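[step 3/7] inverse_fold.run input=structure_tokens len=134
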């Protein structure tokens, strides 16, 4: 779902759709929160991602995942073949595989203390989501 974050950019892939999000938003944290919201409360949740010149919103529901892409024109993508649990597990795996890079996602996290704090925040959210998908 999430590529290795590099230079303040990450690719987000759902099914055959792929988009790039910049450091202007926190897609890893926002997605963790959104998945937790839907899986624990059965609420609809969304995540806004800035592609610097275009944007997209990932919408999560109990049964479906949608992406609303806003470039020259708005497009809607629906992913009925991916379950929320599958995507949540993929998200967890992708974040943990690159945890050190995600700790430095926010350019304010340049000190060792801020990286440690970021790691704790990320892992707390990951553990919460893990409990909901297992």
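[step 3/7] decode complete -> sequence:
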């Amino acid at each position: 779902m999430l590529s290795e974050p590099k230079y303040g950019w990450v690719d987000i892939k759902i099914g055959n759709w792929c988009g790039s999000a910049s450091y202007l938003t926190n897609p890893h944290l926002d997605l963790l929160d959104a998945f937790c919201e839907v899986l624990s409360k059965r609420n609809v949740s969304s995540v806004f991602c800035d592609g610097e010149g275009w944007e997209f919103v990932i919408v999560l529901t109990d049964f479906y995942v949608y992406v609303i892409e806003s470039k020259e024109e708005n497009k809607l993508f629906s992913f009925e073949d991916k379950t929320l649990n599958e995507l949540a597990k993929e998200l967890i795996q992708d974040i943990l595989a690159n945890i050190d890079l995600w700790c430095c996602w926010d350019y304010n996290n340049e000190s060792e203390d801020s990286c440690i704090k970021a790691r704790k925040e990320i892992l707390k959210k990951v553990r919460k989501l893990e409990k909901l998908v297992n």
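[step 4/7] annotate
The chain is about 40% helix and 25% strand.
The beta strands are 9-14, 17-22, 45-50, 55-60, 65-70, 74-79.
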